[in-house]
C-alpha cells in the first residue's frame, strides 16, 4: 500500500505542478493589469513604477521563481484589487465552496446509490424508466437556467425560499445545493444503475441467490460493493468538477466562495489572488485524487498491483 | 451440507467477501465523517442563525440595497469608480461642493462659499461645526490635505486621472475655515472638479489607499463582511438633515434577474442596474444615466482612414431600430458623445435616420479611389457593457456589411477591451471599430473632449490640430461662451474628423420596492444618496 501511495502521489503531483505553472504563465499572456488599476492620466513613469512594484517588469521566469519562493513561505502576495493578502482572501472564500461541494456530493452519492440500485433491481420497469429519464434530464439541464428558474419559482412565485444569500438557516442552502446537485446526481444515478444492472446479473450474485441469500443482502451486500468502484471514480471526477459549477452558483446566489473569487480575479487580472486560488484548488484536487485512489485500492486490491510507476 | 449454507452466504470468517467488507464500511464511515467535519468546520463562515436574508429584515429601519458587484474598496479617492462611488459618495465621504445632477448647478456642502480671486487662485470657506465619524472636527486643513492626497500624491487615485487629468494643484489652509487652491493654468471649472474630491481627515494614509475610510457623511461604516455585505449606520452627529433610515445595508448579486427578484420578493428595497427584461412597471424606474454608446473608428488604418468610409458608417446605422428592438426603447438615438444636460451639448445636432443608399455611394466612391473597402474591420465590443451588447454588435455588423464593408466581431472582457480603449493602443490590430460607452458624470464637455476628441487624448485614436486648438480655447472659457464653444466643437468634429459613429444615449433601470420612495437622477448609477431615500410613509425612523 505504501508503494502504491507513493506512486500515486508522484503521478498526481505532476498535473498539480503543470496546472499551477500553466495558470501562472497563461495569466501573464492575457495582458498587463496596469490599465485596470492606474488612472488614465498615469504617466509612463507611474506605469513603470506600478509594474516594478508588483514585479511585472521582470521576465516571466523571474516572476515565477519569486512566486514559488513566496509560496514556499506561504506568502502569496497582495490583491491588486482590494489590497488584502491573497492567501487570506482565498482562505476566507474556500470554506464556503468546500461546504457546498461536500454537502452536495454526500446527498448526490446517497441519493444515487438508493435510486440507482432500486432502478437496477427491476430493469425496464416503470420505476427504472422514470429514474433513467429523470436522471438523464437532470444531467442535461444547464445549471444556470435551473438556478434562475429555482429563484423565480421557489423564491418569488411560491415564496418558500430566499432568492439568494448566505445569511440564514437551512433554507439558504436549498437552491444553491439543488443547482449544484442536479448534474452530479443525474450522472451518478446512471452510473450506479448501469453498474448495478451488470453486477446483479453477474455469476457471483446468482451463486449467492442460489445459496439462499436474502435479496437485501444480495443487492447491498454483494452487488453494490462491486458497483461502488466505478461509481466512486465518477464521483471523484464530479467532485472535482464542482468547482466549475460553483462559479455559477456563487455568482447567482451571492455565495462568497472560491469559484466567484477566481472568476473575478481573472477578469480583474488580479494575478496574486488567481494564483493563490488555483494553487489551493489544485492542492485540494490533488488530495482528493489521492483519497479516491486510496479508497479505490481499499475496495479493489487489484488496483494496488497495477498502479502506474 | 445444510450446515455449511450460512457460511457460504458470506458470514464465514475467511471467506473471499470478508476482507473487502471492512474497507467499504470504513470508507463510508470516513466519507460521512469527513463530509460532516468539513461542513461543520466551515459552517460558521457561511450559515448563521436567523433567516432575514443577507440584506436584512424588512423592518423599515434598514434601507436594503442590492448592487451588481462588491466594491473592491471604499477608498474616497477611488470614488469615481462606479462600484466604489455608489456606496461612498455623499453617504460616507463628502466633497466641498456638490453638483446638482438635474440642474447642473453647484451647491455648497463642506464649503459654504467660494470665489475666484485670480485666474489661477480660488478661495473656499469651509463649513464650521462639522465632525468626522471618529469625532475629530473638520477644518480647512483637512480639506487641503484631502486635495493634496487625491491629486498630488503617489497614490495614483482614479479621481486624479479622470477628473484632474494629471494636473497638480496647490492647496493650503489660511485659517481653520479658509482654504486656498491654486492651479498652474486658469481653470474655470475648478469647483466642479473639486466636487469629485472627497474629504478625509488629516492623518489618513498617503502611502496606501484605505479600504474603509473615515468621512463626514450622514452614514459611517458599521461592518463589512467581505463577500457578503456592507452595513452602514446613521451618523447621529451629522451636520445636515437627518436621513430617514437609521441603517443601510448593501449586498451584491451579479445576475440582474436575481436583483429584480429580490425587489419583488421584498428582500431588498433598491436594486441597481436591472436589465430591461427584468423590469416591470410596479418595481422599476428608468432614468437617464449620462452614458452614450458609439463606435470609435480607428482613422489611422485603411479603410477607416478615409472620412467617406467613416461617414458611411454613421449613415448606415439604424439607431432607432437598435434602440427600439434591442434596447427596449430605454435609449435615445445619439448624434454626439454627451447627452442633454451636459455643458457643451449641441441641441442642433440630431441623429440622422439610416441612409444605406448614401452610405453605399460613399463606400463605392472610396473604393473607386483605391481605398481597400473590402479589408475586414474588427468590431470590438465588451461583454456585459450594457444589456444585449452582443446582439447590438451583430446588428451593427449586418448594417455595415449591407453598405459594402466587411466587419467581423470580437467580444472582449474589460481588461482586453481597455487595451484597445486606452493609449498606448495595439499597433498591429488592423482597422478597429471599438464599441464604447462613455459616461460624463461631471456635467461638462471638457471631461469628454480631453479624453475622446483631442488627437492624443487617452481614449482617442486621432484628430486634427485645428480641433485640438479649439478644444484648448474652449477649456479656458466659462458661462455661455463655454457652452457655445463646446457645442460648435461637437458639430465640427462630426464634419471634419468623424472619429465616432454615434449610437445611443442610454438609460439605466433601477428596481425600487413599494416600501420606499426615491427618484433616480442622472447621477444615480454612480452616486446613490441614501439621504434622498425615504420610507413610503415619509417618516424618519
Automatic annotation (TrEMBL), chain A:
<dbReference type="Pfam" id="PF00528">
    <property type="entry name" value="BPD_transp_1"/>
</dbReference>
<feature type="transmembrane region" description="Helical">
    <location>
        <begin position="273"/>
        <end position="299"/>
    </location>
</feature>
<keyword id="KW-0472">Membrane</keyword>
<keyword id="KW-0812">Transmembrane</keyword>
<dbReference type="GO" id="GO:0071916">
    <property type="term" value="F:dipeptide transmembrane transporter activity"/>
</dbReference>
<feature type="transmembrane region" description="Helical">
    <location>
        <begin position="12"/>
        <end position="31"/>
    </location>
</feature>
<keyword id="KW-1003">Cell membrane</keyword>
<keyword id="KW-0813">Transport</keyword>
<feature type="domain" description="ABC transmembrane type-1">
    <location>
        <begin position="94"/>
        <end position="292"/>
    </location>
</feature>
<protein>
    <submittedName>
        <fullName>Peptide/nickel transport system permease protein</fullName>
    </submittedName>
</protein>
<dbReference type="InterPro" id="IPR035906">
    <property type="entry name" value="MetI-like_sf"/>
</dbReference>
<dbReference type="GO" id="GO:0005886">
    <property type="term" value="C:plasma membrane"/>
</dbReference>
<dbReference type="InterPro" id="IPR000515">
    <property type="entry name" value="MetI-like"/>
</dbReference>
<keyword id="KW-1133">Transmembrane helix</keyword>
<feature type="transmembrane region" description="Helical">
    <location>
        <begin position="133"/>
        <end position="161"/>
    </location>
</feature>
<feature type="transmembrane region" description="Helical">
    <location>
        <begin position="98"/>
        <end position="121"/>
    </location>
</feature>
<feature type="transmembrane region" description="Helical">
    <location>
        <begin position="226"/>
        <end position="253"/>
    </location>
</feature>
<feature type="transmembrane region" description="Helical">
    <location>
        <begin position="181"/>
        <end position="205"/>
    </location>
</feature>
<comment type="similarity">
    <text>Belongs to the binding-protein-dependent transport system permease family.</text>
</comment>
TrEMBL record, chain B:
<protein>
    <submittedName>
        <fullName>Peptide/nickel transport system substrate-binding protein</fullName>
    </submittedName>
</protein>
<feature type="region of interest" description="Disordered">
    <location>
        <begin position="1"/>
        <end position="23"/>
    </location>
</feature>
<dbReference type="GO" id="GO:0042597">
    <property type="term" value="C:periplasmic space"/>
</dbReference>
<dbReference type="Pfam" id="PF00496">
    <property type="entry name" value="SBP_bac_5"/>
</dbReference>
<feature type="domain" description="Solute-binding protein family 5">
    <location>
        <begin position="106"/>
        <end position="418"/>
    </location>
</feature>
<dbReference type="InterPro" id="IPR000914">
    <property type="entry name" value="SBP_5_dom"/>
</dbReference>
<dbReference type="GO" id="GO:0015833">
    <property type="term" value="P:peptide transport"/>
</dbReference>
<dbReference type="InterPro" id="IPR039424">
    <property type="entry name" value="SBP_5"/>
</dbReference>
<dbReference type="InterPro" id="IPR030678">
    <property type="entry name" value="Peptide/Ni-bd"/>
</dbReference>
<dbReference type="GO" id="GO:1904680">
    <property type="term" value="F:peptide transmembrane transporter activity"/>
</dbReference>
<dbReference type="GO" id="GO:0043190">
    <property type="term" value="C:ATP-binding cassette (ABC) transporter complex"/>
</dbReference>
